[in-house]
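worker-03 picked up job from queue 'complexes'. Input manifest follows; three sequence lines, order preserved.
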Amino acid sequence: MDILVIHLFNALLYASVLFLIAGGLSLIYGVMRIVNLAHGNLYAFGAYVTAWVVGQALAGAHPVILYLLLPAGAFAAALLGAILEPTLLRPFYRRAEEYQLLVTFGLLMILEDLMRFFWGPYPLTATSLFEKMGSLKIGESVYPRYNLLVISIGVLAAGFLWAFVYKTRFGVVLRATSQDMRRASAMGVNVNRVYIQAFTIGCFMAGLGGAIVVPGQSAVLGMGVDALVLAFVVVVVGGLGSLEGALVGALIVGIVREFGVSVFPEVELAVLYLIAVVVLLVRPAGLFGRTA
Amino acid sequence: MNLLQTTKLTKHFGETHAVDGVDFTVNEGEVLALIGSNGAGKTSLVNVVSGLLRPDSGSIVFRGADVTDLSVHDRIHAGIARSFQLVNLFDQLTLLDNVALSIFSREDLTRKLLALADHHRAVWEEAFEILRQFGLAVSATQLAGGISQGERKLLDVAIAFALRPRLLFLDEPTSGVSTREKAPIMDVITSVVRSNNITAVIIEHDMDVVFKYSDRIVAMHQGSILASGTPDEIRRNEAVTTNLLGAAHA
Amino acid sequence: MSTVPLTLQARSPMKALPWAVPVALLLFALPQAIDPYKTILLAYGLVMGIAALGFNLLLGYTGLLSFGHSAYFGVGAYAVALIFKYFHVRSMELFLLGAILASLVVSALFGFVCVRYTRIFFGILTLALSQVLWSLAFKFYPITGGTDGLRVPTPTLLGLPLDTAGDKILFLARNYYYYVLGFFFACVLVMWVIVNSPFGKALQAIRDNETRAEFVGIHIRRYRFVAFLVSGVFTGIAGALWVPLNGLTTPDILYWPFSGEIVFMTVLGGFRTFSGPIFGAVVFNYLKTSAVGFTTYWQALLGAILVFLVLALPGGIVGTVVQLFPMLKKRFSR
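worker-03 finished. Artifact:
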C-alpha cells in the first residue's frame, strides 16, 4: 500500500513538472501557431538560474529567503522569452513553418551554449532546499517533503492557469486570438501584444518547471533537449494547443513513466513515444485537440 | 445516352442543404451550363460529383458504373476531371510541366522513377500542343506562379483537359478576370472542348456567356434543380426568370 | 511543331553537365593535393551529402519536413555495427546490403504512419518515432552497448584482403575515400534521375498543390510513401558509409538534434536546388569541424549562422548564388 502511494506521488511529481513545460509549449502553439524547439532550453534556463541564485545566497541567508528565491528561474525565463519573441520570432510568423522550426532550432543551439558559457560544463545543484524540508513518514516508508511541494506547485499552477485563461478579460482576448487571429485583430486586439504576453507566460511556465525541479535533481547541460521530446509526447497525446490536453497528457506520461521505470525499464521511453504515435494515428488532433 | 446520372444526391453542411436530393443528368457530347445564384449549390454539386466532397446520401453513376465511393484519383482515371474557380496550379513548375503531369498521370507513367521525364518526347510534344491550343505556348517554359490571372484560368482548364476526360467540369472559368478577357477565354475553351468531343459542364454566372456557349442549361436554386432545358426554354422559364434572371437580367 | 524541340532543349536537365563534370574531376583529384586528414573530412562531407540528398527528396521535392532522419542514418550505422558484432562479417558490401535492408524496413514502418500527416504534425511524428529507436539503442546495453556504443574495425572493400600492417588513416584517406566517392556518384546520379523522372515531377506537384495533384489522378499517400522509402534508404546508406570513418557507433546519431543537423546542412546549401544539400553537407562539415577547433562554443556559433541564414539567405548558398548571377544561369542553360 505504501509503495503504491509513493509510486502515485512520484507519478504526480513527474506530471507536475511535465505539465508546466508542455503546458507552456502548448499555450504558445495554441495562440501563435509556432512550435518552439528551444522551449526545453527555457526550462533548463529556469533550472540554472534558480540553482545559481540559491547558491549565491546560500551563505548565511535565512531558509525562508532561500525558498522565496525559488521562482527566480521562472521570472528569468519569462524575461528571456519577452526579449526573444519580438526580436527573433516575430519576423517569421508570415514565413513557412519550416523556417520557424529552423530558427527555433538555431535558438536551441545558442541557448545551450549560453548556459555552458555562464555556468560551465558541470552540474549545478540546489540540494539544500531539498534536504532542509526533510521527509514524511508514509506507513513504513519515507518520502521527501520537497516533492510534495513540487506537486502542490504543479496543482496550483494548473488551477491558476485555468482561472487565467477562462475567467479573466485577458484570457478572453487570448482565446479569441488563438481561434482566429485575423478576426481578433479586426476587432481591435493588439495581436503583437497578445503574442508577446502568451510567449512570456509560456516561458514562465517552462522556467518554473526548471526552478522547482532543480532542488531535487541538478541542472545539467542537455536537460532541455531531453525535456522537449517528452513535452512533445505530452502535447501530442493531449492535443497541440490545448491546456486541458497538456494536463491529461502529463498525467498519462507521468503514470506510464513511473510504472514503466519499475516494470519495463528498457523500453520505458520507447513505450512513451509509441503511445504518442498511437494517439496520433487514432486521434490525429490528440485527446483534447481541435480537429484541423 | 446518359454519361452521368446522380440519384437523390445530398450534401448538408450543418443546417445548410447545399445539395438536396438532386437528380442530375449529363448527356454524352453536350456542353451544359450550370447556373444559379450564389449559394444555390452549383459548386457543391460539382465538388461531390468530382470527389472533393463525400455525399451524405445518394449515388453517382458514370458510364454505367457506380462511382459514388471512388477516391478522387480513381475518379480521374475513370474519366471525370475538373478545373477550379480559384485556380489550383503547380506554381513552382513550368507551364509545360503543369500540363505534362496530367499526360504522365493519364498514361500511367508517373510511377516510373528511374527514367528521365524528358525522354518521353511524345508527352512533351502533346503538352506543348495543348498549350498552343490554349494560346499559352509563348509562356511554355515560364513558372506557373508568374503568369497573368487570365493565363492562369486557362492553364487550370488546360491541366484538366490534358487528362482527356470523358466529362469535364469547369467551375467558373472566367471568374476573376476582366470583362474584356471573358469572351476570348470562353472562345478558346469551348472551341477546344467541342473540337475534341468532350462533354463539359460549365458553372457560370454571366448569362450572356451561358446563352452564347451552352447546348443545355440546368438552373439550381437552394440546393435543388429548378429547371433544365435549352437556352431558349430557360430564357422563357418563369421560375428561372423570377428567381435567377430577375435580379441580374432585369 | 519545329519550336518544340528547341523549347525542350532549353530546359533539359542535361544542362547540369558542364559543371558536374569539373566538380567530379576535382573530387577525384583532391586527395592527391590535400593531406589525409582533410581528405577524411571531405569523405565525411560526401557521406553527409548522401544523407542530405535523401532528406531533401522529402523537404525540397515533396514538401515534407522530417525532424527524424537521424532514425534512418542510425539504423544504417547500427545495422553495420550489429552485423559485425553478431556475424563477424567485415565486408563493406555486406554491411551496405544489411543497412539498405534495415533502413528499408524501418522507413516502411515509419513511413506508413507518417505519410498520413503533413506540415508540423509530420515533423513531430517523425521526431517521436526516431526517438523510439534512440531510446532503444540507449537502453539495451547488452545489444547496443548503450552510450559506449559499438566499435567497428576497418572493413574489407570489394572483397580485397586487408593489409593489416597498413596505416588506418591512409586507408581511410585513399582506399576508403574513393570507395565513398564511388557510392556518392552513384547516389547523386540515381537521385538526379529520380527527381527528373515522371515520378519526381509528381512529387513536386504534390509539394506545390496537394489538392490539384490529387485532381490530376495522383494517389498522394502512395507517392509520399515511396518518396519516404527512397529518402530513408539513401540516409541509411549514408549511415553505413559513415561507420568506418568514425569507427564507433553511438546513440548520438539517433538522437533528434542530429536530425536537426541534417536539416541544417540542407537549408545551408539550399533546399530548393538539387545540388544545394550536397554543398551544404560538405560546407557544414568543414564549418562544424573548424568551429569545434576554434571555440568551445561552436554550437552557439552554428546556431547564430543558422538564424542568420534563415533570416537573410533562405535560399541557402546555392540558391543565393543562382539568384545573384542570373547571367551565369542563362549561360549554363544554353
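worker-03 released lock.
Chains A and B do not touch (no CB pair under 8 Å).
Chain A has a mean pLDDT of 85.
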